[in-house]
Amino acid sequence: MRCVYTLGIRLYALGVRVAALFGNAKAQLWVDGRKAKALEPVEEPKDSNKVEPALRQTQEPNDSWIWFHAASLGEFEQGRPVIEALKQAHPEFKILLSFFSPSGYEIRKNYPLADKVAYLPTDTPRHAEQWVRSRHFVAAFFIKYEFWFNYMQALKQAGVPLFYISLILKPESYFFRWYGGWFRKQLHHVTHFFVQDEATAQLLKAHGMDNISVCGDTRFDRVATIAEQAKPFPEIERFIAGRQCIIAGSTWPPDEKLLAGFLPKLPEDHCLIIAPHDISASHLDQIMAMFPEAQLYTELSSLSQPAESRPLSLSKGRPTRILIINTIGILSQLYQYARFVYIGGGFGVNIHNIQEPVTFGCPVVIGPKYKSFKEAVDLVALQGVFPVNDADELTAVFTRLYEDEAFRKQASATCLTYLKSQLGATKTIIKGFESALFL
Q1: Mean pLDDT, residues 176-200
Q2: Complete domains list, the chain, with CATH
């Protein structure tokens, strides 16, 4: 079965290379990254000529490394609190951070707490063995769904403890299907599972694993830190100028169409900030066509005037109510200004991150595709998050949130209470890591 799995990996890599040849930009990054930016494994550790230059510069004979692997940016954010806590508690260890996807690597390739950031080579037995031998690893952390079975076996054979963090599994997962026997067997290579919920723990226990701790999602620790450290944005405050602010984060075209339909119903004392998931020039042109009065954030931030008591105005003299965020990296902190929030993606594949607005006590409105996320399911049941299926439902929920202050405050309190109940996963993981490594 391992041969079949490895063949599948090789065919996948071939498919990506073919896509790159036909102009797929993300596939090209994936291929180029593994040529130039992956950690070149060391076949003969004693021969320094075979060691990647970056490795020769950073690795000393007595260095001890901890390996963190994330699929992409979202998984990195789940692992980030653990990296930061480990660096603070155990500065003697170096951190190797690897990514599968270019969208994670390209944004976090200069992450300062990692001593090395690299693409993960394809999961073949040879790559896995060489990777594990390339450094003196004392532990490895795989984040959420990253199951690479040749790497897992290589770590087990090398005696390197492997931890899964923020793991969540469903009964319909391939591990628990009729054909999942070989895949379940690979889970026994894992030293300890730090899972998000009791349901995942029970699934694993039902199949012979008891090395499990239920500790929740580490990303809650991360977003709580973001909220505590949120900085002011004078240009945003100047735009809001005392009005009530609704923020729509990580939107896609179906979400933007809904919002454009609601705009005529938006009260005059309210404003809307839209942060689209795609900030390419072509998509921004589409948004500006939907919202002709909108202003771009980069136009705001280029102004040097101090904050004023009135909102920015268009050339017609009428204050604009729409701001488009056409940059990345600030949305998670902008939620501090929101009365309530709309999170996009729910009319496509799946919703985006609702934890960031929840940590500021913002009630959240989402589309119907949300059931893959435990926090969304929980908060829908608790009435801190509100799913909608169409424009009429969106209008009804928005209207109630800005007209019924008691209802909005109750939803806000629900979000904050839920957030507090989810904190502490990072501490549990660090304690479990130390117990496994030192005791």
Answers
A1: 94
A2: 2-216+424-438 (3.40.50.11720), 229-422 (3.40.50.2000)
